[in-house]
Amino acid sequence: MSVHALSLTATPFISSALASQTRRINLARSLKQEVALVSHFFDCKEFHTRAAADLHRSVFTSRSFVVASSPARAMEKGRSFLSMLGFGARGSSAAQTDPATAGIPHGPDDDAPAPGQQFAAFGAGCFWGVELAYQRVPGVTKTEVGYSQGYTHKPSYNDVCSGTTGHSEIVRVEFDPKECSYENLLDVFWKRHDPTTLNRQGGDVGTQYRSGIYYYSPEQEEAAKESLEKHQKSLNRKIVSEVLPAKKFYRAEEYHQQYLSKGGRFGS
């Protein structure tokens, strides 16, 4: 084949590739402008750096989406990234609250543990792995994953992933205090995640992944704060974990419950 013929044959493919790359570059520029605007609003250099890194991975390599092994997690990562950039379901039902139920999410967790048991609640990134860690603790009799600390009544998984409801993915642990101390549960919390990264654990980014200890009694509050102070001394970065009263717990969809122990994403 002559050079001329070869060039004519290859031209459509080259044009297509260039058009695709141009679209990516234009998208990157558009998102970069959004990052800059949001960064300016928050006046946060760390946000800008982190967002720019995620922007590069998402637009040019798509790694932050490919690493998700299930369609639900891939969709969540996409929503989390856009939420971090300031996109999201603005004005959607996810962000709206019904005046009749507005106070319920801010109320206390009104569920009751089994007789002789106590509740504890933790947020430490994606609740799948956190729940599995607590399932393996002797003295823990029950675990549930769900959403709390937000301002929308009965949020769905998609609502929480939109970044507009303020909820955190948490694990509520029911334990026998005669067999497992609350301090032991706190030790698992610190070992299970990085408490110095704000609204992020590994590749999972979004306010729903924030680090938090949610206490059910003054004794738990005191133990949590003492544990935080003690753990801070062993780190050279500031702990960003919130320590707050437990609020209304919204149990997550059934397929999230004990997800890894049931073999989800091939278990762990």
Automatic annotation (TrEMBL):
Residues 120-262 form the Peptide methionine sulphoxide reductase MsrA domain. Residues 93-115 are annotated as: Disordered. Transmembrane segments: none annotated. Its EC number is 1.8.4.11. The keyword Oxidoreductase applies. It is an enzyme of class 1 (oxidoreductase). Pfam families: PMSR. It catalyses: [thioredoxin]-disulfide + L-methionine + H2O = L-methionine (S)-S-oxide + [thioredoxin]-dithiol; L-methionyl-[protein] + [thioredoxin]-disulfide + H2O = L-methionyl-(S)-S-oxide-[protein] + [thioredoxin]-dithiol. It comes from the Eukaryota. SUPFAM superfamilies: Peptide methionine sulfoxide reductase (SSF55068). Belongs to the MsrA Met sulfoxide reductase family. This is peptide-methionine (S)-S-oxide reductase. It comes from Sphagnum troendelagicum. The lineage of its organism: Eukaryota, Viridiplantae, Streptophyta, Embryophyta, Bryophyta.
